[in-house]
Amino acid sequence: MPQDLSLGGLLLAADALGGSSGGLAPASREEWARARQQWQDESMRHAAAIEKKASAEFSSRLNLWRAYLQELKEKPRQAEAYAFEVRHRVILDRLLPILEGGAATRVSRLAQADDLLRAMFRPGTFIWASELKRVYPEGSFWYLYGRPSEAK
Fold first, then answer.
1. Would you state the pLDDT for residue 113?
2. In terms of Cα–Cα distance, which of 112, 73, 74, 122 is closest to 92?
3. What crossing angle do the helices spanning 87-95 and 47-74 adopt, rounded to 10°?
4. Over the stretch 79-131, which tens digit does the pLDDT of each residue have?
5. Can you tell me whether residue 146 is helix, strand or coil?
6. pLDDT per residue over 13-44, tens digit each?
């Protein structure tokens, strides 16, 4: 059964394709370029609807991310799931540029969650597939370069 992608899931999939596009065959690279252009055209044409979806997803993802961080604070062994759970944080960053209204409030709430993570974070190596490293630079996606400590 096919699964519908959320807007954030679509953005992550696009990032993954963009990160590995150098390894695609020429015909596949052309198809990827057409798909990117189609997305840009559609996102311009349906900007209000996309922003509405992004706003709803941002709130939902932020709640999931904050819940995970709170659980991590109480049960440090949950750090084992970090490489999977951190996708919520990446999606939050990817959704922010789409959102116009209430950006300051969203950024502030995200910064509060980041403060919680920083209190238990240990910088280290990139935790996802190496081809994504150029898509997610350390300066902007610092939370992908290390893990939370498993000790209280």
1. 97
2. 112
3. 150
4. 999 999 999 999 999 999 998 776 788 999 999 999 999 999 999 999 999 98
5. strand
6. 889 887 766 667 888 778 878 888 888 888 88
103 or 74: which leads in pLDDT: 74
Q: Find tokens 């949950």 and name the residue.
A: 78
Tally of domains in the chain: 1
Give the domain range for residue 85.
Answer: 7-147
CA distances from residue 123 to 36, 69, 126, 141 in whole angstroms, order as listed: 33, 17, 9, 12
Q: How far apart are CA 61 and CA 67, in angstroms?
A: 10
What span, in angstroms and rounded, lies between the C-alpha atoms of 36 and 108?
31
What's the predicted TM-score (pTM) here?
A: 0.88
DSSP 84-144: HHTHHHHHHHHHGGG--TTHHHHHHHHHHHHHHHHTTEEEEEE-S-GGGTTTS-TTT-GGG
Q: Which residues contact 116 (CB under 8 A, 6 or more apart)?
A: 66, 69, 70, 73
Is 127 inside any structural domain?
Answer: yes
CB 110 within 8 A of CB 116: no
